[in-house]
């Protein structure tokens, strides 16, 4: 007898990211027939379950109790119970809790089955109009400016389309950092409140997108996905002269890198990104 036959099944169930009608028939069936549902926020999940008249019991499983819940879930599976894991919206484990649980259960031979459905990442890519043959999902960027700029600098040569989640109160700062790091002309798409009443999908070069967002506070609300075009490998950085490098070093004695790069670009007419990348290298060497 195989190890898996001794267990119940844990179903990883994708749920709507906004429009409740986007749930699959199979997902409703699994949630109805499960012995227990584990949810990131039971209050949020209960609204979905009530809409579809699902009365299955719900317990909390989130990032703060996930590790300690592993043995409990494993014990229930060993009793032959069938369980479901859902997040607040979309597919569990995608910038949501569940990785620790699934990883540990895999080691124990538990039977884990995906129930695919809505995902904000895929939804955004499908309407962005930016290449989807190769892409990277970067999740949420760091909330602190310096850390965020370091992560973006590490992605400055990424040729694949990049997908980010962002909190609305950080959207403007993130777009400003992207403009600095990726360049003002890099195309990005803001996908906001996907599948909801105020769904917005707006494509523009980063400089224009930043200006548009800053002029309309409504664009800094709700759930946000940013899809950013990868770097065009055929375009090279502006070549910096010894004078350019000396200018940047001098300004860095008095200004933060972000501001120094902007000033250098204005004085020389060369790309901010070229100065910013040089500055990052200089700081690493120091």
Automatic annotation (TrEMBL):
MF term (GO), any: rRNA (cytosine-2'-O-)-methyltransferase activity
Reaction(s) catalysed by this chain's protein: cytidine(1402) in 16S rRNA + S-adenosyl-L-methionine = 2'-O-methylcytidine(1402) in 16S rRNA + S-adenosyl-L-homocysteine + H(+)
One Pfam family, short name: RsmI_C
Subcellular location as annotated: Cytoplasm
PROSITE patterns recorded: RSMI
UniProt keyword annotation of Iron present: no
Main location: cytoplasm
Superkingdom, taxonomy of origin: Bacteria
Record carries keyword RNA-binding: no
GO cellular component, one term: cytoplasm
Start and end residues of each RsmI HTH domain: 246-283
InterPro entries named in the record: 4pyrrol_Mease, 4pyrrol_Methylase_sf, 4pyrrole_Mease_sub1, 4pyrrole_Mease_sub2, rRNA_ssu_MeTfrase_I, RsmI_HTH, SAM_MeTrfase_RsmI_CS
Residues annotated as domain Tetrapyrrole methylase: 9-209
Keywords: Cytoplasm, Methyltransferase, rRNA processing, S-adenosyl-L-methionine, Transferase
Protein EC: 2.1.1.198
Family named by the database record: Belongs to the methyltransferase superfamily. RsmI family.
Function: Catalyzes the 2'-O-methylation of the ribose of cytidine 1402 (C1402) in 16S rRNA.
Record's protein name: Ribosomal RNA small subunit methyltransferase I
The organism of origin for this protein: Gynuella sunshinyii YC6258
């Amino acid at each position: 007898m195989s190890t898996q036959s001794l267990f119940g099944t844990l179903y990883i169930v994708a749920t709507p990211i906004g429009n409740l009608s986007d749930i699959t028939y199979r997902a409703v069936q699994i949630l109805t027939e499960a012995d227990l549902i584990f949810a990131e926020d039971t209050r949020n999940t209960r609204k979905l379950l009530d809409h579809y008249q699902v009365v299955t019991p719900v317990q909390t499983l989130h990032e703060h109790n996930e590790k300690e819940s592993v043995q409990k879930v494993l014990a229930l599976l060993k009793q032959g119970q069938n369980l479901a894991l859902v997040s607040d919206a979309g597919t569990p484990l995608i910038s949501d809790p569940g990785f620790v649980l699934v990883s540990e259960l895999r080691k124990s031979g538990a039977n884990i089955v995906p129930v695919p459905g809505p995902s904000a990442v895929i939804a955004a890519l499908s309407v962005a109009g930016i290449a989807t043959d190769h892409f990277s999902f970067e999740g949420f960027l760091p909330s602190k400016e310096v850390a965020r700029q370091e992560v973006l600098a590490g992605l400055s040569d990424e040729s694949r389309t990049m997908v980010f989640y962002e909190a609305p109160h950080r959207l403007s700062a993130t777009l400003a950092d992207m403009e600095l790091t990726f360049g003002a002309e890099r195309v990005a798409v803001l996908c906001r409140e996907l599948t909801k009443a105020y769904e917005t999908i707006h494509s523009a070069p980063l400089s224009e997108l930043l200006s548009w967002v800053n002029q309309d506070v409504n664009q800094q609300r709700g759930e946000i996905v940013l899809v950013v075009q990868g770097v065009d490998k055929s375009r090279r950085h502006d070549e910096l002269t010894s004078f350019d490098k000396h200018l940047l070093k001098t300004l860095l004695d008095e200004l933060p890198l972000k501001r120094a790069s902007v000033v250098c670009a204005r004085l020389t007419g060369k790309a901010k990104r070229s100065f910013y990348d040089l500055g990052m290298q200089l700081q690493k060497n120091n």
